[in-house]
């Protein structure tokens, strides 16, 4: 079911009226209308697209999924695509919700591709800044972009915390390497997905702020500038985290190689020590006469030789940190 709002001279005067009444309300120059639709088809958008003279290509993009974040400008309106994002704290995977929006002089039409996009949070932002409602469509667009960009920023912050935890676990004494590898790959995949939806938002917000777009007035300019600042910070943070995950991965592999070398040194050292009694007993096992042959002194000489040589090797390997 479509959700609607009507503002007149910056005051909310009606909600949830039929979508068919949108054109009647827009006949009033002081009116600003918001219409929201969830997972509509092209037939569902046919009526509103005819009333608002929406471009056919924009309507197709609004229905089809997996569009890139962008702002396309047509003669009578602009078409916006963006993604809300949040990080699943348990799996470390990014969850995105696609949104399309038609921006006209006095109407904002939002098209959610699924119900996971929290449109109620956007309404809460509009209701908390009623003093800006006189700016019309710019006010509605600001609340929408502010919610989307803040979600990106929170997702980056959550990823940063997950990566810090992963970084601490790299140097732990007992590490589950399989879990570490899976976790690092999940975080890297989430960062790549977040980067795809965050970086294009710089151009989107920058285009909205241009004077020839006629949406961002002098009152809203500082607010859009704040949104743009958040976009830049989220973009830069995403890039730095991407490098950090790669560094953690390389560090993990280097530590695994280092620990393997330590194990190999220990195994080799013990093998050298064990070879001493093998060599001594093998020598005394010869079927020829030798000093101490068939005498008790021969046993004690071989035993002392084993203990002395093995002890000397043990001390030597310990000093060289091989054991």
From TrEMBL:
The chain crosses the membrane at residues 267-285, 297-317. GO terms for cellular component: plasma membrane. InterPro entries: CorA_cytoplasmic_dom, CorA_TM1_TM2, MgTranspt_CorA/ZnTranspt_ZntB. It is found in: Cell membrane. Keywords: Cell membrane, Membrane, Transmembrane, Transmembrane helix, Transport. SUPFAM superfamilies: CorA soluble domain-like (SSF143865), Magnesium transport protein CorA, transmembrane region (SSF144083). It is a multi-pass membrane protein. Its main location: membrane. Pfam families: CorA. One of its GO terms (molecular function) is cobalt ion binding. PANTHER family: CORA FAMILY METAL ION TRANSPORTER (EUROFUNG). Belongs to the CorA metal ion transporter (MIT) (TC 1.A.35) family. This is Magnesium transporter CorA. It comes from Gandjariella thermophila. The lineage of its organism: Bacteria, Bacillati, Actinomycetota, Actinomycetes, Pseudonocardiales.
């Amino acid at each position: 079911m479509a959700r609607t709002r009507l503002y007149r001279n910056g005051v909310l005067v009606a909600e949830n009226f039929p979508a068919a009444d949108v054109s009647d309300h827009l006949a009033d120059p002081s009116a600003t209308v918001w219409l929201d639709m969830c997972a509509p088809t092209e037939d569902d958008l046919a009526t509103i697209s005819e009333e608002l003279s929406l471009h056919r290509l924009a309507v197709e993009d609004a229905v089809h999924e997996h569009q890139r974040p962008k702002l396309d400008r047509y003669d009578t309106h602009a078409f916006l695509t963006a993604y809300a994002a949040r990080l699943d704290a348990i799996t470390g995977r990014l969850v995105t919700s696609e949104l399309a929006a038609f921006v006209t002089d006095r109407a904002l039409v939002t098209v959610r591709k699924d119900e996971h996009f929290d449109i109620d949070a956007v309404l809460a932002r509009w209701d908390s800044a009623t003093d800006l409602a006189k700016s019309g469509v710019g006010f509605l667009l600001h609340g929408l972009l502010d919610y989307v960009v803040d979600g990106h920023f929170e997702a980056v912050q959550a990823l940063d915390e997950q990566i810090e935890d992963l970084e601490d676990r790299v140097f732990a004494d007992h590490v589950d390497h399989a879990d570490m590898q899976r976790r690092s790959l999940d975080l890297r995949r989430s960062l790549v997905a977040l980067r795809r939806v965050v970086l294009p938002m710089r151009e989107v917000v920058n285009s909205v702020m241009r004077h020839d777009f006629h949406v961002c007035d002098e009152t809203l300019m500082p607010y859009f500038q704040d949104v743009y600042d958040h976009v830049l910070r989220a973009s830069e943070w995403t890039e730095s985290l991407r490098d950090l995950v790669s560094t953690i991965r390389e560090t993990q592999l280097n530590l695994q190689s280092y620990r393997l070398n330590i194990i190999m040194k220990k195994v080799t050292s013990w093998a050298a020590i064990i070879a001493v009694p093998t060599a001594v007993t093998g020598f005394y096992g010869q079927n020829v006469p030798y000093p101490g042959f068939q005498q008790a002194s021969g046993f004690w000489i071989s035993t002392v030789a084993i203990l002395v040589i093995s002890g000397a090797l043990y001390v030597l390997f310990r000093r060289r940190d091989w054991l």
